[in-house]
Write a structure and sequence with these properties.
Oligomer: single chain
Structural class: alpha/beta
Shape: globular
Number of helices: 25
CATH superfamily of the largest domain: NADH-ubiquinone oxidoreductase 51kDa subunit
Strand order of the largest sheet: 5-12-11-15-13-14
Number of strands: 15
Radius of gyration: 24 Å
Helix content: 40-55%
């Protein structure tokens, strides 16, 4: 039975190794887990070394190479879920099921654990049940869930209301109130030549909405000019930043505009194939989006000879499997090719050497939707909105201590204070403006403006009122990055782990002033020596919280008469010096993949100072 199922699934994917992540997901769904013999069979069928297949299976959080039960329950561990009581609900479910968090029940039926942010921060606490999102958890729902699991009721037969995901659009502007029909933007774009379309995007000054703010026309022109056997368009819908959910709303309610934008990008750069990289936590959208793509093909809005204009362009959806780092464009491309999602060394850049080594443009969901809007209304119109350096509007995911969490669309230039007022925030002490990976602002900075030239953001604003302990916020962020680091480079792999242990040590009241100094030094090291954006942004919020909420950290310091009962201190300076010696370079991250004495100290169980 298992062999027949495996062969059917492999056949459906054409035994194509670039589809490995999709194959692993579907095989796991069918067989329950990825057994050693299953990985061997997959490797043989797709003609890849077994080590490569096992590497991909072991990289992604949503794959498991040992049995974890018929029911896999993962509570969202984002700080906003914790603020809504997720930890107490997790303990309640474990008590009802007589198991420990992180363990499989003795009968092999169920396991309960945590996962990173599920993108449901506007309707938490949330969890994933067999990787399908359940929102608005309550003690009553938890008790009911425990009974359903004990009765072995399939997740597909659980109450439908549990799986309801709302858009929670709180403010609309030109994008969320566009009123365009499916294909209208694409038809307008096809009236122009590709170069004329690129000129229009240039006039709009559209910058990428994923956070970096790179000029869209520059990226598209570079990709169009690059030589290759094929060109590709990739929609980056892997919004894994804690507190972000705007792309989920665009995909659910404005999918045709996003697809029009992908087609327009394909027309501009000379591509005939596109991919949507959909984050694994948004699995509930997969069937809906696949159905909508099929409807567009039937209507002549996708596939061969679109709108009878001789333009061919089609789209495939790639579902992720739980890896925050795949939001980085080169890591995303690695995952598209069936590999572990580890960022590539650049240059070369994806616009010249992307998917399968061919020219590839990777754009955020919001960026593509705005490109479609520009194709209809023009670049000059778009430039009249926002600021001179940040044109257009920005979608903001607002969550935390607000009366109305949800998605807000504002023209660039809006103040942080205006966003807080619209969301019904009161007695706010802090706002993080880029999820866990960006600055933390306090009240004196709420007059600053959301714009690339002032407060740049990918769209995630988490709000904390005066009742919140900012040390615990920082600790949640640091543990998130320690979990999500891909381990490719020394500064990030070691730095995130050391920071996590330092924060845990402080939480136990065993910290010292040296610990705070070590974290500040790690911030400098990781910012300048990490291989990709994960490592270079992992300590920005921590740095700000250390500076602005110092008492929250200092009250965790041990008393002067505290007698340590742990192993010798871990010397960060010595570890970094040894790392430099091992690499033979001044940058310990330059020689990717080396182990250092830091990891050795961590494995030996030594306490950082």
């Amino acid at each position: 039975m298992a062999a027949a199922t495996l062969e059917t699934l492999l056949g459906r994917h054409g035994h194509d190794g670039t589809r490995l992540v999709q194959i692993l997901r579907e095989v796991q769904d069918a067989l329950g887990w990825l057994a050693p013999e299953t990985l061997t069979a997959i490797a043989h069928a797709i003609d890849r070394p077994r080590a490569q297949v096992e590497s991909s299976a072991g990289f992604y959080s949503f794959f498991h190479t040992r049995p974890l039960g018929d029911y896999r329950i993962l509570f969202s561990d984002n700080i906003t879920d914790r603020m809504l009581g997720s930890q107490a609900l997790l303990r309640r479910l474990c008590e009802r099921l007589w198991l420990e968090p992180g363990r499989v029940s003795e009968d092999g039926l169920v396991s309960v654990d945590t996962t990173s942010c599920t993108g449901m921060c506007d309707q938490g606490p949330a969890l994933l049940a067999n990787y399908r999102a359940i929102t608005r958890l309550t003690p009553q729902r938890i008790d009911h869930m425990a009974r359903l699991i004990r009765r072995r009721v399939p997740v597909s037969d659980w109450p439908r209301e549990w799986f309801r995901v709302e858009d929670n659009i709180r403010r609309r502007d030109v994008l969320l109130g566009n009123g365009l029909a499916p294909g209208e933007a694409l038809a307008a774009a096809l009236e122009r030549a590709p170069t004329a379309l690129l000129d229009e995007i240039e006039r709009s000054a559209l910058r990428g909405r994923g956070g970096a703010g790179f000029g869209s026309d520059i990226k598209w022109r570079a990709c169009r000019a690059a030589r290759g056997d094929a060109h590709y368009v990739v929609c980056n819908a892997d919004e894994g930043e804690p507190g972000t959910f705007k792309d989920r709303v665009l995909l659910a309610g404005f999918f045709d505009l996003v697809v029009d934008g992908m087609c327009i990008a394909g027309f501009a750069i000379g591509a005939s194939q596109g991919f949507i990289y959909l984050r694994g936590e948004y699995r509930h959208l997969l069937d809906l989006l696949e159905t909508r793509l099929a409807e567009r093909r039937a209507a002549g809005l996708l596939g061969r000879d679109i709108l009878g204009r001789g333009f061919d362009f089609d789209i495939a959806i790639h579902l992720g499997a739980g890896a925050y780092v795949c939001g980085e464009e080169s890591a995303l491309i690695e995952s598209l090719e069936g590999k572990p999602g580890k960022p590539r060394i650049r240059p070369p850049f994806p616009v010249t050497h992307g998917y399968l080594g061919q020219p590839t443009t990777v754009n955020n969901v919001e960026t593509l939707a705005l490109a479609a809007l520009i194709a209809v209304r023009g670049g000059e119109w778009f430039r009249t909105i926002g600021t001179a350096s940040s044109t257009g509007t920005k979608l903001l995911s607002v969550s935390g201590d607000v009366a109305r969490p949800g998605v807000y669309e504002f023209p660039f230039g809006v103040t942080v204070a205006a966003v807080l007022e619209a969301a019904g925030a009161q007695d706010t002490q802090a706002v993080t403006t880029a999820g866990a990976a960006g600055p933390c602002l306090t009240a004196e900075a709420f007059g600053r403006r959301i714009a690339f030239e002032d407060v740049a953001t990918g769209g995630s604003l988490m709000v904390f009122d005066a009742s919140r302990d900012m040390f615990e916020v920082a600790r949640n962020f640091i543990n998130f990055f320690a979990h999500e680091s891909c381990g490719l480079c020394t500064p990030c792999r070691v730095g995130t782990a050391v920071n996590a242990r330092l924060m845990d040590k402080l939480a136990r009241g065993r910290g010292s002033p040296c610990d705070l100094e070590e974290m500040e030094k790690l911030h400098q090291l990781m910012q300048h020596a990490s291989h990709c954006g994960l490592g270079s942004t992992a300590t920005i919020a921590l740095r700000d919280m250390l500076a602005r909420f110092r008492p929250a950290f200092e009250r965790r310091l041990r008393s002067p008469d505290f007698a340590p009962d742990f192993a010798p201190a871990f010397d960060l300076d010595a570890a970094l010096s040894q790392a430099r010696g091992m690499t033979g370079r001044s940058d310990p991250g330059a020689h990717l993949g080396d182990e250092t004495s830091a990891t050795g100290a961590l494995r030996a169980g030594e306490e950082p100072r």
